Structures are given as structure tokens and as C-alpha cells.
Amino acid sequence: MSTIPHWIDGARTTGVSSRTSDVFNPATGEVAAQVVLAEQADVDLAVSSSLKAAQSWSESSLSTRSRILFEYRHLLHTHRDELAAIITSEHGKVLSDAAGEVQRGIEVVEFACGIPQLLKGEHSEQVSRGVDAYSLRQPLGVVAGITPFNFPVMVPMWMFPIAIATGNTFVLKPSERDPSASIRLAELFGQAGLPDGVLNVLQGDAFAVNALLDHPDVSAASFVGSTPIARHVYSRGTAAGKRVQALGGAKNHMVVLPDADLDVAADAAVSAGYGSAGERCMAISVVVAVGETGDALVEKIASRTRDLHPSVLPGTDPSAQMGPLVTGVHRDRVRSYVDAGESAGASLVVDGRGYAPEGAENGFWLAPTLFDHVTRDMTIYTDEIFGPVLTVVRADTFEDALELVNANPYGNGTAIYTGDGLAAREYQRRVHVGMVGINVPIPVPMAYYSFGGWKDSLFGDTHVHGAEGVKFYTRAKAVTARWPQQHGVNLGFPTHG
Ligand code: NAD
């Protein structure tokens, strides 16, 4: 049985950890490896390595950082298939989906390559006689990143390329469910010329997270995960005086207006609902069928959902469209929601329970499942299920649909399907959600925009990557400089003139 270690100071190490956690191959259900779980001494070692590295890294020139990032981008491209295979082996998603995830991570590195441009400050000459004013953005020091299982490459890469480009050092605490990709990401960054200690990977569970949040030498934390943990991380980190951005869970609604092309909408709902087995924070989990669209739309979604069942296969199978869920525990939890939806009286249109591909019966399978006539009091509507379960809620009017979406405590992503530009514009303007798709089911912003939800989907006030990422990982300084120096005491309040 192999052991997945930490990556500290440019080397693999198992540290002092005596605790481990099983890492599964979700397609076979077998334990594939054990990951070490950090103890306090491991946390201290990783943070002190990062603190030491921060002294010289924060002094490195912008061109040095940019050059290393360009080389890293090249290496990531070269190793894209290898990284995708690592993701599939521990997460279960199909290889093409995993390769897409790597691509979206690379795009953040491409954004970070432009750091000399991104860190340009403002400058005002002659704000008073002989006085100039300008602004600087400087690194924070050691930043911690805590990431979820569902994007073991992309989500860490939303964070560390920008944190490092802006002169910080970074301790990444990946999900203990699929921890191997992070090690490879750090190794490749080292190969690209990143000095030891600038990116450390600390394997662990809640203990490591809390120890990082409490650590006096950690200045800030970026978190992505479920809402209860995001809330905890935000309050514990800010109570310890740190800057924190904590992205939480989601319940993303796709509103389909009566004028929409129902085939297009059904394709989108199925793709966005079941892609990556619904284990995406931007997955569509609720379709809101407005007006008379309901029956026809559900029929079209149902036939596509049934058609998908035979292509629920191990992620390495070239004909797989959807893989297994990440662990048996998670699969059982998702299945229990299907049981609950049925008991609550929702119409179970397509049932994915009991499915397993031939020859892989012990994997963590649950085929795409569809519910209709779901109401807002049912747990399949109120809770984030995070699995291949799509629910349809009926709404009489556009206003009813909008009210439903806005009443939901989550506000990560949403989509509207319509050919009516005015309705789309009204929706975009009035919906209380951070990322909106107009005839786009998964509106994940490009790396040069910023990603983040509203309400219980994000705690803190900055989104990740893009300009807000640069802002989060730096603090502002405003300088007022006078040349030549001025003689004479003056107790008056400084004004210009
Ligand atoms: P999770 O909240 O269980 O775990 C996230 C991280 O927190 C992991 O590194 C884990 O080790 C750590 N953690 C778990 N329990 C903890 C505790 N009690 N105290 C401190 N740390 C703890 O999330 P997950 O199951 O790995 O990922 C799925 C969740 O992430 C879903 O809710 C999904 O919506 C969300 N997610 C959100 C976004 C977004 O951008 N908003 C993106 C991806 C995933």
C-alpha cells in the first residue's frame, strides 16, 4: 500500500504523522493508498518553511516570477494527461473532464504570468507643490489554501499561482480524499524553478485546517468547500486576525422560460446536472420549469437521462460519460436523498439506484436520477446533494421563478434559458446570485474574471482569481512623497496647495 506524503521544502516527507486516511479508487471501491494526516509538528514545519521562503521570495523581481510561471505553464501542458489520470484515479471523474479541469487551472497560471502588469499601482504627480502620491500592493506573507475534493487540480490553482505571483508563499491543504494531484502540481512548479518552501503541500484533515487558521505566522486563508465548513473557517480565521475568503456550497437553479428551445434546454440541464456525477459546485441541481414548459421539458430531460445510464462507467473507459462518486460514504449519502425524495412524495421519473457497470460492481455507483414535482420543503430541494440527482420544480411565472431562486440561501450560480433578451436582462439584474449564465448552464468565469457566489455560498468579500484574487493576496499602501524636503514647523492639518 503506497503512502501519499506531504511536500515540504521541495521534498516529499511523511513528517511525524502517525494518523492516515484511506484514499480509494472510486471505480473499483478498493483502497488505493493512504494519505498521511498532519500533526501540529507537521503544520509548524510547513509554515516555518514557508515563512523562511517568504523573506527572499517577496524580494524576487516581477520578471523572475513571471519567467517561472511561464515555464510552469509549459510543464503543466506537457503533463496534462498525467495530471488528468491522477485526478480520475482518486476522484473518479472521466478522463476528458479531468483534462478540462487541468486546462481551467492552467488558465489561471496564464493569467498570473501577467503579474508585472497586474501589480501596477496608481500614480499622481504634483498632488501638492513638489508632492507626488502613489499606491503599492505588497504581499501578505504566508497564505494557506484549503481545498475540496471535487476539483483537486483546478481549485488549488485558483489560488496558489496568484498568491505566489504576488510575492506570497503558500501552504496548500488539499482534500484528504484525492490528495495526490497536489504533490505533482508542487513538484512541477519546483521543476519550473520555484524555490523550495514557496509552495508547500500539507496533507491532513480538520486538525490541519484548524492549526493553520490558528497559526500566528499564517496571514490569510483561502477556502473552498461546503457551507458549514466555510462558515467555520471564516469565523475561526478572522477571529485569529487573518484575512479569509471562504467559498461554500451551492444549489444552482436553471430557469427555463416557455419560449426557450426545449431541446437545447434539456441538453443543457442534463450536461450540467450529471457532468462529473453532479459533484461540481456549479452543477445545476434544480430545473425551474416555467409555465406550460413543464411536461414537455421533463419528458425531454428524462429520455436523455435514461440514455446516459449505459455510459456510466469507470472514468478511464473511453465511452464513459459519467464516472462513480468519490467515496462509498458519499454515494450512500446521495442515495439516502433519493430515498427521502421518494418518501416525501416527489415523482421519481428516472431512478439511478442499484446501477453498477459490469465488472466494476464494487465501485461507488449511482446513475443519473431525475425527480419532478419537487417542492421547496423537501430535503432534495433544501439541501446540497452533490451527486447526480436533478430535481424539477414547477413555477407559474417568471416572477415566481425569480422569487424561488432569490429565497434560496445559496447564491453560487444560476442559468436562464430563453430567447427573450429582455427577460434575460431582468433576470441577470434582479437575481441574488454571484454567477449568472444566459443560455449557458455552467457560467464559470474565465481566469481573468473572478469566481464567487453570494449569500451562503461565500463568506468574506473577495472572490477568487482575476483582479479580486490579486487584491486578496496583497495589501495596499498609499505613499505621499515630497521632493525637495521642506523646512519649517507647521502644526496645521496638511492640505494641498
Ligand atoms: P468539505 O467542506 O467537506 O471539505 C473541504 C475542505 O475542508 C477539505 O480540505 C477538508 O479536509 C476540510 N474540512 C472538512 N471538515 C472540516 C472541519 N470540520 N473543520 C475544518 N476543515 C474541514 O467539502 P468537500 O466535500 O471536499 O467538497 C464539496 C463541497 O465543496 C460542496 O459543498 C461544494 O459545493 C463545495 N465547493 C464549492 C465551490 C465554490 O466555488 N463555491 C467549489 C468547489 C466545491
TrEMBL record:
Aldehyde dehydrogenase domain mapped to chain residues: 18-479
Domain of life: Bacteria
GO molecular function: methylmalonate-semialdehyde dehydrogenase (acylating, NAD) activity
Top enzyme class: oxidoreductase
UniProt-listed Gene3D superfamilies: Aldehyde Dehydrogenase, Chain A, domain 1, Aldehyde Dehydrogenase, Chain A, domain 2
GO biological process: L-valine catabolic process; thymine catabolic process
Alphabetical keyword list: NAD, Oxidoreductase
Assigned EC number: 1.2.1.27
InterPro entries documented for this protein: Ald_DH/histidinol_DH, Ald_DH_C, Ald_DH_CS_CYS, Ald_DH_N, Aldehyde_DH_dom, MeMal-semiAld_DH
Name of the featured protein: methylmalonate-semialdehyde dehydrogenase (CoA acylating)
Species of origin: Lentzea albidocapillata
